Every structure is written in C-alpha cells, then in structure tokens.
C-alpha cells in the first residue's frame, strides 16, 4: 500500500478499530499449486484478537476466520501443507495479506475544489477512502477429524456469530432490540456437519499499515469545498464522507498528521 505521510494512520489502535468496524477482509496469497491459480483472493469475515497496539511488537494480534473446504483457496492451502509434509494446524511457509476497506468511500469531482479550480484549473479527480493492510503467517486447520480443528472452528464460528449479531445487526437484547442468534440454537449434529465442510484460518499479525485518504493534501479552501460538495449530495454516504473529510482535515490542521 502506498502510504503518503499525510494520509498514513500511524495508530495501531485506530487501525484495529477500522478492522473491527469492517470485518469483511480480502485474503490474498501467492502459493505455488499444481491445480490452482498462483495468486488467489477470498472475501472472509474475520474475528480480531488484539495482543498489542505497540507498533514494535513482533505479533500485534490475530485474525480468525474460516472458508468452505471446496473453495480453491482451501485446496491450495491443504496442497501446500501436504507438499511440505506438515500436518493440520501448521502455519504456511508463505506470507499472506488481508485487506480491509470501509464502506464509506467516494469519487471526488474536481468541481468540489472551490479554491484551486477557479484560480488555476489545475485539478483532477480522485477517490477518498480508508483501508488497512495486514501481513502475517497463516495457520490452517483442515483435518476435520482432529479435536484441535473442531475446537478452533467451534470457537471461531461462535465468536464471529456473536460479533456479527451484536455489532452489525444490533441484536443485543437491550433497549427493545431482539436477542442475538446463537450457534447453540441450531442442532448440534447439523453444526458438526457444517464444520466438516469448512477449514479454519488463523493469521498472526506481524505487520500492519493503513491510510485515511480524505483530502488532507488539499488546501483548507478546497477541503471546505469538498465537505460542502459531499453535503450537497443529500445522501447518507455524502454526509458520512463530509464528516470524515472534516475530521481528518481538523487533525491535519492541529498538526496530528
């Protein structure tokens, strides 16, 4: 990821918060295979276990996820472990990457630049967005007969379901809201069958970086134009974008970026 200093987010805590608020990440790998593509990507919802928000910590956290056993990505993982003579619950030799992005992103038209465009016309379109990239080693749980695989998958799907039900759906059982759905509500035998059709993925976060590209590089006059332009769209996304551009602009002006 290209990280201009003016856009880079240096707080590990802030990057972790972005992941927690946007848990659907794109896992990308480059693993040799005799049957599958060398480069593969899969969209996976993740549970984040935070270990440390110290940028110097060798392991900053863990991402826990799962994917269908029939996914070509899964087949590549299992093939790679077998080729290396490694059992289930072993880490892959290759580094992996996971990319997270926010739902709040938008095209920025040059018409928003109310200071520079009238003065020089030296403006071009861009796109505002926020993203985090994680790098680390992935441990693959694929032996459905192994107790450690069953235990890992049981905890992972329970934690992911609880996270999604409460944080995303708001099903907390409080304030008149519905209670969250629990894995225990499904027949145990059915869950056991489902677990045999997925593999577990646990990634140790060894490196993490991210950015909030929200017009910080623009002059204050142009940023004000971008804020007004987004607000004038009259949409929820436009209002969210305006708020982020304002927030990041104020951080820049305060010397935090």
TrEMBL record:
InterPro entries hit by this protein: Split_barrel_FMN-bd, TR_PAI2-type
A Pfam family recorded for this sequence: FMN_bind_2
Identification of the protein by name: Putative transcriptional regulator
Native source organism of the sequence: Aspergillus nomiae NRRL (strain ATCC 15546 / NRRL 13137 / CBS 260.88 / M93)
């Amino acid at each position: 990821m290209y990280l201009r200093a003016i856009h880079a987010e240096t707080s590990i805590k802030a990057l972790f918060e972005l992941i927690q608020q946007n848990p659907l990440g794109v896992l990308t790998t480059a693993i040799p295979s005799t049957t599958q593509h060398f480069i593969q990507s899969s969209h996976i919802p993740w549970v984040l276990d935070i270990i440390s928000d110290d940028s110097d910590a060798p392991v900053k956290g863990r991402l826990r996820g799962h994917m269908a056993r029939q996914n070509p990505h899964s087949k590549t993982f299992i093939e790679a472990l077998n080729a290396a003579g490694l059992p289930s619950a072993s880490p892959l030799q290759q580094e992996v990457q996971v990319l997270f992005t926010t739902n709040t992103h938008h095209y920025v038209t040059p018409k928003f630049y109310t200071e520079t465009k009238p003065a020089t016309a030296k403006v071009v379109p861009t796109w505002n967005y926020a993203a985090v990239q994680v790098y680390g080693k992935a441990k693959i749980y694929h032996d459905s007969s192994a107790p450690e695989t069953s235990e890992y998958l049981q905890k992972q799907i329970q934690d992911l379901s609880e996270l999604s039900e409460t944080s995303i759906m708001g099903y907390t059982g409080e304030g008149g809201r519905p209670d969250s759905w629990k894995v225990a509500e499904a027949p145990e035998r059915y869950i056991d069958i489902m677990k045999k059709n997925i593999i577990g993925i646990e990634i140790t976060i060894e490196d993490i970086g991210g950015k909030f590209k929200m017009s910080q590089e623009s002059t204050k006059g142009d940023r004000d134009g971008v804020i007004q332009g987004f607000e004038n769209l009259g949409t929820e996304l436009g209002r969210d974008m305006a708020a982020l551009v304002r927030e990041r602009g104020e951080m820049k002006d305060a010397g935090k970026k």
